[in-house]
Amino acid sequence: MKKFLRDTFRLLRPRQWVKNLAVFAALIFSGQLFDPYSFQKVFWGFIAFCLLSSAIYIINDIIDIPKDRLHPFKRFRPLANKDLPVSFGLVLAIIIIIITLIIGTNISFDLLFLLLVFLALQMLYSLQLKHIAIIDILTLASGYILRVYAGEIITGYHISVWLLLTVISLSLFLAVGKRRRELTLISGYSTTQIASVRKSLSHYSEHLLDIYASIFVTTGFIFYSLFTFLGGNSQINNDLFLPNYLPAQFQRKWLMLTIIPVIYGLMRYLQVIYEKHEGESPEKVLFSDKQLLTTVIVWLFLVIAIVYGLQRT
Question: Is 239 exposed, middle or buried (0-12, 13-18, 19+ CB in 10 A)?
Fold first, then answer.
């Protein structure tokens, strides 16, 4: 029984749930994180995306069983390794999807529609889109973008266009990093073998993916910098940090301080991809790399301290 429960837990891939924290973006940057009603709605939206993501992963694992058995790591997944029957996985996925849609309906019909779009897009990805070069990267990135947009739909609080552009760029960067790592893992395979594992990988080269990564990490940094400079809301009214005799220029744009951990985080993630040859699973990198995890915590602390402390008037 313990092994069955453990394998079922692995099948749900709970480590992937960290991606769904993106639904809190609109709530955090709107300054309403500690509003109980808004937080409760976003929290249930987070739960809905966690459940739906798990169901999608199960269905994807069912579809990919033959290919996963050829992969150096994915062959150990519960369904590919025959630890769990396929029929159990399918029934579990259907039940989870039904629960998710019920949660979405209780929050709002707009969220329900977005959850259905997310489900349809991910199903298309599993069935066809992941085999088409470039389209597979765009589809992977769209999942992050939809999560952020879901937070805006749930709360009604709009996010800055610069923050949205940041999310788009960094989502593409993470998707490219994932493909880069996958290509590295099977670099010793022949073209035919690579295509049998994932068809789209046979249309990429490491050099091309390096160029993609450079583009998106650069634009992500630029857009985030513009967000902190142009997207800041109020001036700081805090004599302890900024006495009144200081120029007005020093009394705003404190979010720009968060650029420092963002720069370090991006550089560290690139180091992980190119030096440690990881990146296939961004959430795995986050939890396994102490420096990167610490950087994210520091960034989040600074954001909350500035938005809910220094910039409160």
Answer: exposed
Task: Give the pLDDT band of residue 65 (cuts 50, 70, 90).
Answer: confident
Average pLDDT rounded to a whole number, residues 132-161: 89
Here the tokens at position 195 are 């295509």
d(CA 231, CA 241): 21
In the chain, count of helices (H) and strands (E)?
A: 13, 0
Running DSSP on this structure, what letter comes out for residue 310? Answer: I
pLDDT value, residue 279: 55
Closest CA to 180 of 217, 126, 231: 217
The CA-based diameter of the chain, rounded to the nearest angstrom, is 71
Contact at 8 Å (CB) between 34 and 312? Answer: no
Cβ atoms of residues 57 and 79 within 8 Å: no
Pinpoint the alpha helices (H) of 13-134.
Answer: 25-29, 36-63, 65-68, 86-107, 109-127
pLDDT for 283 equals 75
CA 185-188-193 angle, 5° bins? 90
What lies within 8 Å, CB to CB, of 23 at 6+ separation is 42, 45, 46, 49, 147, 148, 150, 151, 154
Structural contact between residues 42 and 97, judged by C-beta atoms closer than 8 angstroms: no
Tell me what pLDDT residue 97 has.
Answer: 95
| Residue recorded with tokens 């309906």 | 105
Higher pLDDT, residue 197 or 142? 142
% of the chain exceeding 90 in pLDDT? 40
